[in-house]
Specification:
Distance between the termini: 36 Å
Number of strands: 3
Strand content: 5-15%
Number of helices: 3
Oligomer: single chain
Structural class: mainly alpha
Largest sheet: 3 strands, antiparallel
Helix content: 55-70%
Length: about 120
């Protein structure tokens, strides 16, 4: 399902989400949060265990959603000769949607910056 219009699209296109993929992303975020709690004594962090767990899991889940939203809205997607959407510029004939030059690398970078800034603002103040 594409996040912006809730319509089913081609698997593998940015912005498409599935229930299984979303649940796997949430489980991965929780697993990394548990790992950070387990490593907390080695890292000499001055956060409470629950605060660290919440911060890491919220950051992971937020990153998952922000990445999908950016992929559905601003990431460049092309149409191939069969008029199907593709992210591969080599197979494309025309732009379908998104900002030229704003590829998956830029989506990843931007979502990481947004999540990092948000976590710092939320958990610092």
């Amino acid at each position: 399902m594409l996040l912006t219009n809730c319509k089913t699209g081609k698997p593998g296109i940015s912005g498409e989400v599935t229930l299984l993929g979303t649940l796997a992303g949430i489980a991965g975020s929780v697993l990394i949060a548990l790992l950070s709690v387990a490593l907390k004594p080695m890292l000499n962090l001055e956060l409470s265990t629950i605060h660290l767990f919440r911060m890491v899991s919220i950051a992971g889940i937020s990153g998952l959603l922000i990445d999908s939203i950016l992929g559905a809205t601003v990431q460049i997607v092309y149409k191939d000769v069969l008029e199907q959407e593709t992210e591969n510029v080599l197979w494309s004939t025309t732009k379908s949607r998104g900002i030229p030059g704003f590829n998956n690398d830029w989506v990843n970078f931007t979502s990481t910056c947004i999540v990092t800034a948000s976590v710092i603002l939320i958990f610092t103040f």
